[in-house]
Amino acid sequence: MELTAEVLEQVRSNDPTLTKLDLRNNEFKEEDVLALEKALESNSTITSIDLYNSRIGEKCAIALADVLKTNTSITSLNLYYNNIGAKGAIALAEALKTNNTLADLDLEANGIGNEGTSALAEALKSNSRLARLILFNNNIEKEGAQYLADALKTNSTLAELNLHFNNIGDEGAGDIAKALKSNKGLSVLNLESNDIGDAGTIAIAEAIGDNKRLTVLNLINDRIGGKGNTALAKAFMEGKHRNIVDVHPTTKELEAYCAENWKIAGGLIRTIRNHFDRLTGDDFRDISYRIPSIITVAEMGDSHKGIAPLSSKTIAAMLMKVKAAAPEDIQQVLQLEIPEYLKRLTPEAETPPGPHSQAVRDGQYTGKGVVMP
């Protein structure tokens, strides 16, 4: 969409057919964005504005921030790659202190730095509406992470924070980990490519047990070593990540758990899914979440289609194979845990098969409809 005179008139006149402004890749002149700002002042129908790669700069960002101070309809604003800098972020942060409508703000690749991040973090302490904040590639360092961590200790509405491709390091990760222990809103945390090592990873692993909300954790392309790997793996195995369904560490140890035993893990999770009519939801979680080879269970989808259910003895054998392939320290944990899980599997002779198991035997089961409880 181009910002034509007709479009501006639609905005000014509150045309009910125009609710989204997709103005990406336009490289606007300053006067264009200022004209849009004027049109938006009286608008109450636009809910989404996408200015991706439009190079609006800090002055125009400040103008849009002025709109947000009084606007009550815009819920999503994408300013990815617009060179708004720290001043633009500061202006937007001021708007967030009074705005009760905006839920999604994408500021990727805008060079806001620690200064802009500080302003946004301060706004988060009072804002009760913003649910998604994307700060990918913004030159944010440990100081910026500390500002955000302070905000997360009290903010309970931000559900997704993306800090991908910044440089918060171990200290920044440690501060965020402390915040995770008390935060009650964040469900998605992306710390990919942030120069996080063992110390930061260990802090996050320890915080997992206290956080009951986080479901997605991304630590891809960080410099995690053996100690961090082990701490994260143990946190998963001890059930501390019970609520996390998607984790992305590129650590040698965790990747080895998945890669070396993928066939075993895949077969095991398929078996468990086909036995789901014999297991309670808690039983399922206990088995699947505590075996590190299955930390990517959420990605399995319907790949179990057509696999017939196996006996409890076969499941036991699979579990023992996973244990045998694990590093020694992990084997010690599994040595204690596996027998408890095996007790929860009811032998076939004692429990009649459920309808789904019977359907598999009859060749009618398609694999559809089986989800994680």
Give a brief rundown of this model.
The protein contains 15 helices and nine strands.
* Overall pLDDT confidence: 75
Q: Classify the fold: give the CATH topology of the largest domain.
A: Leucine-rich repeat, LRR (right-handed beta-alpha superhelix)
Strand order of the largest sheet: 1-2-3-4-5-6-7-8-9
Provide the gyration radius in Å.
25 Å
- Please report which band the strand proportion falls in: under 5%, 5-15%, 15-25%, 25-35%, 35-45% or over 45%: 5-15%
Write the CATH homologous superfamily of the largest domain: Ribonuclease Inhibitor
Q: Assembly type of the shown chains?
A: single chain
Number of strands: 9
Tell me what you see in this structure:
The C terminus is likely disordered. The chain contains 15 helices and nine strands. The two termini are 43 Å apart. It has a nine-stranded parallel beta sheet, with no helix packed on it. Helix 2 links the parallel strand 1 and strand 2. It has two domains: 191 residues, Ribonuclease Inhibitor (Leucine-rich repeat, LRR (right-handed beta-alpha superhelix), Alpha-Beta Horseshoe), CATH 3.80.10.10; 100 residues, no CATH class. The longest helix is centred in the C-terminal third of the chain and has 16 residues.
